[in-house]
Amino acid sequence: MTPPDERVAPTLEEVARVAGVSRSTVSRVINDLPGVSKRARAAVEQAIGDLRYVPNQAARNLVTRRTNSIALVVSEHGDRVFGDPFFAKILRGVYAGMAGSRRQLVLLMAQEQDDQTLENYLCGGHVDGAVVVSLHGRDPLPARLVAAGLPVVLVGRPLAEVTVPYVDSDNLTGGLTAARHLLRTGRQRIATIAGPDDMAVGIDRLAGWRRGMAEADRRTDRVARSDFSVEGGAAAMAALLDAHPDTDAVFAAADIIAIGALRTLAERGLRVPEDIALVGFDDSVLATSTAPRLTTVRQDVEELGRTTTARLLAQVKGEGGLPASVLLPTELVIRDSA
Amino acid sequence: MTPPDERVAPTLEEVARVAGVSRSTVSRVINDLPGVSKRARAAVEQAIGDLRYVPNQAARNLVTRRTNSIALVVSEHGDRVFGDPFFAKILRGVYAGMAGSRRQLVLLMAQEQDDQTLENYLCGGHVDGAVVVSLHGRDPLPARLVAAGLPVVLVGRPLAEVTVPYVDSDNLTGGLTAARHLLRTGRQRIATIAGPDDMAVGIDRLAGWRRGMAEADRRTDRVARSDFSVEGGAAAMAALLDAHPDTDAVFAAADIIAIGALRTLAERGLRVPEDIALVGFDDSVLATSTAPRLTTVRQDVEELGRTTTARLLAQVKGEGGLPASVLLPTELVIRDSA
DNA sequence: CTGAAAGCGCTTACAG
DNA sequence: CTGAAAGCGCTTACAG
After folding, report:
1. Nearest nt to A57, CA vs C1'?
2. What CATH number matches the domain at B69-169+303-328, 3.30.465.10, 3.40.50.2300, 3.40.50.150, 3.30.559.70?
3. Is the predicted pLDDT of residue B5 greater than 50, yes or no?
4. How many Å does it take to go from CA A186 to C1' D4?
5. Would you state the CATH architecture of domain A4-55?
6. Which of A128, A248, B135, B281 has its CA 20 to 30 A from that of A24?
């Protein structure tokens, strides 16, 4: 019994022989190019069907120098990615941005392999371009890819000083809006739980909050840090209350952080918004599942994925006049927590 | 200003010229083959560094007929995948199974594109093999891939009558164990909320429950259906109670279904396990977050992903004596709900 | 240890 | 409308 994979795949050459035409003609049929007689086309299609011919992509890529696939590179571990609704939305957006382009998506988890392997894969002609998301710190990856000639667009502003185009939510204005809202509603001792300081989202939302506070001549010393987790938010809220027990408002840099903060506040018997006002960021599904429902800064994550991908594909196609980077608007959604 | 992607990538030929050796020697260095003098190796490595040379994968694939990447094909929409912890665990397992193999993972969402595009991609020499998960109904995809000579291993038993190797949890024994547990603990009117009947998990767990009931000469007419969602579980539980108000035990084909059932039971003022015993399936994180905590049948999903991938890689490498299929054990975990 | 040459399976001008 | 030929950038026997 011969294992099925021993079977040698038919080549274009064999299709040509069976159809009684030249390789050129077969190639034209496969690529749907004009200038083929009905008769020849029919013969080729028949032969393709009979032989179950599938074009060899490697050969095709080698000559066309295109692969018809793009990569989504996630600078995170696989389990983090699959557990976070942020990535689900990014992925939806990426697929939406690719719709109709007849391209494949290759998903790569940067943290699951060594950098060189990833870089060689991306630069080795496997993909036509890459969307890179969730960069940490001053990751040199984007610059390396660009230097190798690969079209790259980032989701989120990079921290490294590179001129790689990116699409991001306007996090700074989002943080500013949150601070202004808390000020406008009469809060006096406003704190923030900032996100990670190795990511632009963390830095920019904090900078927005600081600017809002500065506008009103308020001090900005009530700052705690948290990663994007419930536990982190809970711990940061506790630290904040320990250092500044009279805090009466908090801007949390993400809804998931706000959830953690809510938990700590409940444990300490503090009412939201009566004792402490709380503003989140994201307007994720979490925001309306809490009690009280979260006032939060909305960002459109799916749109982030779509815009980034559309921008990348335009670049891959060689379109001109593309924006270096794009900032998508954020919007305050007022509910019950502030 | 020249866009960076205009830069022509250096070829092996140029490396050879700069290093003052032949293409053969460069190739040997790149592929870490023996029989290269220290001097030649150093010269080549220098040239590679200077030119920032990265081998062209398409050319390499064309001649070696290997791509060093495998596909994980998920027969679901992207958003479903990213929202479900099942896939997070499968992915972890797949990465664990690939560890040390220096291969890339290409993630493909079958439902996001037309079948032909997917098939051409997979059969066109882009990947060395495929793990296919979450097949629905009698999907012809696996048979097609195998016919095209692509090594394929499935996560989960396929419904179509094909001889494609698969790795699955022993769902039948799991269902049997659940039924026996309910019988042993004295339950008299035992129902089940079965999973989708277009998936083996749904069919096999139900079959196990039926067998357990038959062993004890019990009737098996208390059957409701649900998809893998909380809402589905809640609705199925309601339907079950409406048709058979005296039901005193339920085997739910998944923890997430059991969560929905719990909700309905609470709404109707029925106590678990006093009025109705409930057994779930999966032992996911959900099982211990409910009140009461779920008695459930544990399956090791990460191991499912790892075993499937290891089996695939062994086949790709041409190893012999591989098992046609593998069934991983399931285990009853007794907690508070039954 | 090294290199010249053939060939992987396609596409693409080019000539007819 | 069609085909012969060159070439994409590698690897792999083969000869030395």
Report:
1. C10
2. 3.40.50.2300
3. no
4. 83
5. Orthogonal Bundle (1.10)
6. A128
Read off the pLDDT of residues A125-184 as tens digits, 9 standing for 90 and up. Answer: 888 999 999 888 888 899 989 988 899 999 999 998 878 999 999 999 999 999 999 999
- Give the SS3 label for residue A74: strand
The closest nt to B64, taking CA to C1', is D11
> Given this model, what pLDDT does residue B276 score?
97
Q: In the predicted model, what is the mean pLDDT of residues B192-200?
A: 94
CATH of A171-300 given 3.90.380.10, 3.90.1010.10, 3.40.50.2300, 2.60.40.10:
3.40.50.2300
Residue B22 CA and nucleotide C5 C1' are separated, in Å, by 12
Where do the structural domains in chain A lie, given as residue ranges? 4-55, 69-168+303-327, 171-300
Mean per-residue pLDDT, B305-310: 96
Chain B, residues 183-212, CB within 8 A of chain A, namely none
pTM: 0.81
| pLDDT in the model for residue B2 | 33
Do the chains contact at B83 and A88, CB–CB below 8 Å?
A: yes
Rounded CA separation A117/A113 (Å): 7
Find out whether A192 and A250 touch, Cβ atoms under 8 Å.
yes
- How close A316 gets to chain B, by Cα (Å)? 10
Greater confidence (B277 vs A321) lies with: B277
| Cross-chain Cβ contact A62/B62 below 8 Å | yes
User: Which of B84, B91, B305, B288 lies closest to A84, judged by CA?
Assistant: B84
Protein CA at B24 to nucleotide C1' at D15, angstroms: 14
Cis peptide before A273 (omega within 30 of 0): yes
What is the pLDDT, as a whole number, of residue B307?
Answer: 96
Q: Is CATH 3.40.50.300 correct for A69-168+303-327?
A: no
* Positions in chain A whose pLDDT score sits under 50: 1-6
SS3 B155: strand
CATH for B171-299 (1.10.540.10, 2.60.120.200, 3.40.50.2300, 3.40.980.10): 3.40.50.2300
B302 phi and psi angles, rounded to 5 deg = -60, -40
**Whether the predicted pLDDT of B330 surpasses 60:** yes
